[in-house]
Amino acid sequence: MIILIFIVTKKLLLCKYLCNYYSLKINHKKHKQRSYFQLVPKKEKNVRLPIILSVLLSVSIIIVILYFTIDEQTINYLTKTPINYSYFIAAAAINILYWGLWGLRLKILSTAIEPNFNISLWKSTKIVIANLFLANITPSMAGGEPVRIYLLNKDGLHAGGATAAVLGERLLDALFLLICVPFAFFIFGQYITDGVFNTLLYIAIIFFVIVVILFAFALKQPQRTKRLALWVANKLSKFSKKPEKFENGVEKISTEIDHFHESMMFFVTKGKKTFLFAGLITALFWLTGWIIPVLILLGLGITPFIIESFAAQILLVIIAMMPTTPGSTGVSEGGTAALFGVFIPASLIGVFVLLYRFITYHMGLILGVIFQYRIFKSVASFSMDVVEKKE
What we know:
Blueprint: H1 2-8, H2 10-13, H3 15-18, E1 45-46, H4 48-69, H5 72-80, H6 85-113, H7 121-135, H8 144-154, H9 159-188, H10 195-220, H11 222-237, H12 243-268, H13 272-289, H14 292-299, H15 306-320, H16 331-340, H17 346-376, E2 381-382
Antiparallel strand pairs: 1-2
């Protein structure tokens, strides 16, 4: 039940974790008959702890993996085998292309909602890169969503449209990954022999499937979803020391379920063709990102297992979606080592994880910090109101 609320009121419920750096406030203003978000001055919230935790977890787990995998064979291999660094550069370039396709999808969905909203591919890609910082220091990479919504609105897309575009992205990702999961299990299931890891993987898959089912239920039955969500919220309020906060939360839940349903109904009715096209871009977007480890393996002189690599990354994405650590750091490094360790020699798995996570995680974190600072003039602390629809 709690998962259900998480799905249909994503922006609000994530605030429990994001409250360290987001300031939420409802304002009601009119501007040329358009809804919009407003940046308001509020007390700054510190995000140093999530930054430190995410980086520390990632680096420490990589160091642990390196410690247990680097041996004499590793040194001999790296000194005697020609390392093709051009493949590593190509992997980094592919990662940038991956962001570009993400920006293209965001542009397509936004323009479908508001044809007069003219946003360039470069600007939508900048929005994507700017969202990477908060996405990489929050569980399930959820912190980037409010940033994308805010920046779309700042560039001229009305509040409801910005929310619909971002929710549309989430729905497309969920549908594509749901299609890919059986393929991943078919290809990779025979290689998973560790009982503990196998159990954790099944838990992650079950969690993901439940989330998708409840997502669809919220779209099909908004009123029932609202009643269930409100019932759960009211029950939880009895355990709170400040029930008045839950009363406000109940009102917000009701409003956000309506926003969610309106947004999704647009894409399955008027925006159906555009949504389908965005779905094709989504498939290309994910497949492009999954090429990165193949290029890293080629650079290390290891014969790549393309199909198996894709399957491993599908399962890794599902694991990373679990709301565990900031940016799923630690979990992603460990999952990468466990999944790719099936095909890569044990003496090289640490080197592979280091290169893979630097390109797919730390590279985005670094560039995200730069774009974040250019927008908010701060990284460690800032105040931002991004989530409420203005009438």
